[in-house]
Design a protein that fits this description.
5-stranded parallel β-sheet, Rossmann fold, 3 domains, Arc Repressor Mutant, subunit A, alpha/beta
Length: 426
């Protein structure tokens, strides 16, 4: 895995564990975890066990291994060196029986979890609301794109709010692009736990699909149960279901998977194509009323017990549909920033077209753009869209390759591209 170096504020670093008490986790839970790792590994050195569980060998794993050995749950099967970290451990028959009992609760055999209290504290310390974006930084991030200054001056404060944004308007004008570029402005890194333990239940949090490790951490300074990651960005579309917003229990492992909003904590959660999910917009919005207002969420265990977790993310709803068809005034009030992404003006369209030509090494021609505008937008009553220059020029290049001619803004190529792109021409 390739990782990048990054700067991290010292007071946000989860401190290294120096004792079993420092973990906040009961010694019996960690002991069972050790037995599970040995069960799956066959014969493991004590150093490997410590590395797999992400706890220090001295003061923690060494103490627990000695206890397990004195109770005849494990035995030493030689060593690879003279240090105790090289001792090779295996399960005894009694240990095999003990681990089977542990498997009745769950089969989790990963890094040691952190407590819900420690997780909540870490999210609060690394809050998305600590992110600050200036007008200059926003202009730099969007410099390769064409958006009005009015639009950008709405986006910047919305990011700084760390709360919620509703992007709406016709398709193809950059709503998703705005969200994606905004994600790059969040910056910095956050510590994400591999898992959280609450009421004896394990919730997996770290997910390589949403958390991207940026550097390895020093075990002498940092609790290894936490991964240093870029601020998470979780993006979902029409495939989103309500089930993904609650705890998911694996029947096989009896371990919970954290919901998407928990994985997005201290980062961004983008619901793209809002209103096109399999569930109704009203049901989805009702799910977010309390989290958006109180910045906490409530999850339900299979036992029926409710857990309160932080809800700390920049929430973005992006839709092509009319807002009044999706939500009522009560919900709109809870979304702080409503930003209407309008179609480009003719001057903005021209600039996008020029940049798209440059990117594709096609010579720009003002007369050609005038022909496209008058023949296909004015005459047919089509609306300008920011995505059209890119799409039309890509279409034109495909046609040029087929005809074995040089891509250029020639009338024949323009007409072929437009006729195979605009639906109204069919």
């Amino acid at each position: 895995m390739v990782v990048e170096a990054t700067e991290v504020t010292t007071d946000l670093v989860p401190p290294c564990v120096h004792s079993i008490e420092d973990t906040g986790i009961d010694a019996s839970f960690i002991s069972d975890l050790i037995l599970k790792h040995i069960y799956f590994g066959g014969v493991l050195t004590s150093a490997t066990i410590a590395a797999n569980i992400c706890l220090p060998y001295y003061q923690v794993i060494e103490v627990l291994l000695e206890s397990l050995k004195s109770q005849n749950f494990v035995e030493v099967r030689g060593s690879t060196g003279v240090l105790s970290t090289t001792y090779r451990y295996a399960l005894t028959e009694k240990g095999q029986s003990k681990v089977r009992e542990a498997f009745e609760r769950n089969t989790y055999a990963g890094p040691c979890p952190v407590t819900l209290q420690d997780y909540t504290f870490a999210v609060q310390r690394q809050s998305i609301r600590n992110v600050m974006v200036t007008r200059e930084e926003l202009a730099s991030a969007f410099s390769g794109l064409v958006f009005s200054q009015e639009t950008l001056d709405q986006v910047g404060p919305a990011i700084n709010s760390g709360r919620s944004i509703f992007l709406f308007g016709p398709p193809g004008n950059g709503k998703t692009t705005i969200a994606e570029v905004s994600a790059t402005l969040l910056g910095g890194s956050v510590y994400v736990p591999y898992a959280v333990l609450v009421e004896g239940q394990i919730i997996r949090v770290y997910d390589e699909a949403h958390h991207h490790r940026v550097s390895e951490t020093d075990p002498e300074l940092v609790d290894q149960r936490w991964v240093l990651s870029k601020r998470p960005v979780v993006v979902v579309g029409g495939e989103l279901t309500l089930n993904e917003l609650d705890l998911q229990l694996s029947e096989e492992s009896r371990v919970y998977e954290a919901p998407l909003q928990m994985k997005a904590n201290a980062g961004m959660f983008l619901i793209d194509d809002f209103g096109r999910q399999q569930i109704s917009p009203r049901a989805l919005l009702n799910r977010w009323i309390i989290p958006l207002e109180r910045r906490v969420d409530y999850l339900t265990l299979m036992t029926g017990n409710k857990l309160q977790i932080p809800f700390d993310e920049l929430m973005i709803f992006s839709t092509n549909l009319d807002p009044k068809d999706l939500m009522d005034d009560a919900f709109l009030r809870r979304i702080r920033y409503k930003i209407h992404i309008m179609p480009p003006t003719i001057d903005e369209f021209r600039e996008i077209f020029k940049r798209s030509c440059t990117q594709r090494s096609i010579e720009y021609n003002e007369a050609a753009l005038g022909y496209i505008y008058n023949e296909y937008y004015v005459r047919l009553g089509l609306q300008l869209r920011s995505c059209h220059p890119r799409d039309l020029l890509d279409q034109l290049m495909d046609i040029a390759r087929y005809l074995r001619v040089r891509p250029m803004l020639a009338k024949e190529l323009i007409d072929l591209a437009c006729k195979s792109y605009f639906v109204k021409l069919q």
